[in-house]
Amino acid sequence: MPKIRFTVSLEENLLTEFDQVLKHRNYTNRSEAIRDLIRQNLIEEEWEEGAEVIGNITMVYNHHERELAHELTHTQHDFNDVIISTQHVHIDHDNCLEVIVVRGKVSEITQLYNTLKATGGVKQCELIRSTTGQLLN
Ligand code: NI
Question: The domain spanning residue 89 has which CATH number?
């Protein structure tokens, strides 16, 4: 798609700080950094609008905790309509990492995430809000 040029005016100190962040993050030009900011904003909008979204939930837990592994599997079966796949990694003797790829309604994914996060014994649980790519065409 052809690119359109537009002009932005902002305070000098804001631009100086922005340029420092770009340097720190290895951007070679402002345009790419601004494109990334806009894309990130559109993705956030996608999640707020409640359209069909895609993302993943990553969690770490100790499978020796009484009933925990069973409980987490039970929750995932309850939300099977939004779960595309689950990858399980045995980190060491005690700890497991699971990456659950989700797709569907924001409300249902959020409910799954909150349920997993609130399950006693789960050491870490993060939701990555990704994009179906539709808004970024
Ligand atoms: Ni394991």
Answer: 3.30.70.1150
* pTM of the model as a whole: 0.81
- Report the separation in Å between the CA atom of 11 and the middle of ligand 1, taken as the mean of its atom positions: 52
Cα 20 to ligand 1 centroid, rounded to whole Å: 42
Q: What is the Å distance from ligand 1's center to 64 Cα?
A: 9
Contact 99, 23 (CB under 8 A): no
CA of 109 to the centre of ligand 1 (A): 23
Q: How far is the CA of 54 from the centre of ligand 1 (A)?
A: 25
Same domain for 21 and 87, yes or no, is: no
Query: Which DSSP letter does residue 90 get?
Result: E
- Per-residue pLDDT reduced to its tens digit, 65-82: 989 999 999 999 999 999
Residue type, 66: R
**Centroid of ligand 1 to alpha carbon of 10 (angstroms):** 51
- Each residue of 49-60: pLDDT tens digit? 877 899 999 999
Q: How many CB atoms lie within 10 A of CB 54?
A: 18
Distance CA 136, CA 46 (A): 10
Does 30 share its domain with 84? no
